[in-house]
Specification:
By secondary structure, the chain is mainly alpha-helical. Among the domains are: 101 residues, Tetratricopeptide repeat domain (Serine Threonine Protein Phosphatase 5, Tetratricopeptide repeat, Alpha Horseshoe), CATH 1.25.40; 71 residues, Alpha Horseshoe (Serine Threonine Protein Phosphatase 5, Tetratricopeptide repeat), CATH 1.25.40.10; 90 residues, Methane Monooxygenase Hydroxylase, Chain G, domain 1. Helix content is 83%, strand content 0%. It contains 23 helices and no strands. Helix 8 packs antiparallel against helix 9.
Amino acid sequence: MQILRSLRNFVTKINETHCIMKNLSVKYILICVLFFLSVQFTLAQDSEYQEQIEISIEIDTLKMYINNAQYSQAIKFIDRLEPSKELLFQKALCHRYLNNNSGAIEILTALSEEYPDDIPIMLQLAFCYDAISQYSKSIDCYDNLLRIDSTNTYFEVRKADLYYRAEKYSKALEIYTQIDQNYNPNYLARSIAMCYEKLNQQEMAKFYYSKAWDLKEQDAYSANSLVKIQVKEGDYLFAHENSEKFIGMDSTNATMNALNAFVYYNLDFLDLAIERFEKCMQQGDSSLLVNRSLGFSYYLTGRDSLALPFLQQSLLQDTTNNNVLYILGKVNLKTGNYPEAIECFIKLIENITPSNTLFYNSYKDLALSCEKNGEFDRAISAYTSTLRYAQNNNERMELYYSIANIYDKELKNYISAVSYYKQYRLALFNYQTSLKSEEEINDIESKLTSLDEYLKLLTEEAEKEALRAKENLIKELDIIK
């Protein structure tokens, strides 16, 4: 019995051991499965983490290129990556920054079709069309933006700006006036004024320029524009008041300083005008207005040598300015630069359209310049041309005398001299008949008597000259025979 009991216990132990071993196998398998799964999970986490690191590096690299304005490198870098909305948008921006607006438009157009309600994409597309002056397409973009966000005043303002740049001033004005005037009121008032000015409604333009200037006293554009209109209209008193007001706040504005000086010039305060224009020159303003006005001011105050360099510079800046040509010719004549004076008057005659007064003055000064320069035949020709544009007896009388005097004193052509002296005598007699003062009548009578006596002597010389000419002609004919 004891042996049987021992044997039973042994068998029981064996069964228990078998169960334990069986359970260990199951646990081992479970542990292996769990270990495999944990390894895969860990590997997946590591892969995702690595991918996140790579993406972070790519973003940092792209930011570095863009922040350092290396837009070409940024585009090449983006092209190596998997395309996405954000990357394509950044690529479009890079093209825009490189002034390749057509490249940017191609990308942004495709994006806008896929994402029609995306405001940043549509806004950048509007900027690109604006940059290449395709204003109508840019306006279409703002229409789309206002469809997305109808309360955005910025879009309305930009749309109005585009109509202005497209020279559709009435449409721009319509939009500007409908915008909430609390939105940058100075900008809106100035923009409305600019539209009215383009539409040639000067009173309204002046009103809104004045309003814009009141809203922002540093608004140099509005102040300058207001004074310019007043100058164009000849309203020099108000132009003086406003220009002085602005200069009191900012004496460095070149445009306003020049306008202020020009106002003094037109008010005939020439010394003050010269002082202001010289100040403009000292501040670096060598514009045509400053040079021309200084030249004219010095000329009108009798300082021809000071006027000369400014008039010469004015002509270099505007070779077709007839006023400058005429005054420069006069200054050259008065300062003894006769060849230069001749050149000016010839150019002037070539440039100007027919006008009796202007042609008369130009030809007369050309003739005088030629005479002073010793070119007497050319002077005669110019004086003769001047006669065609003389409008009264006094002008013709002066010209007849000038021509007769050159023939008489310089060319010794007494026959022609007598002819023009006789025409001069007739004009002088006509002048005498128009006088009422006894003293003046007697003075002209004395001149006529002296002229008759001189003509008698000169006629004798003319007859001798004619006789000599006849004898010379006979000799030449005899030689030919």
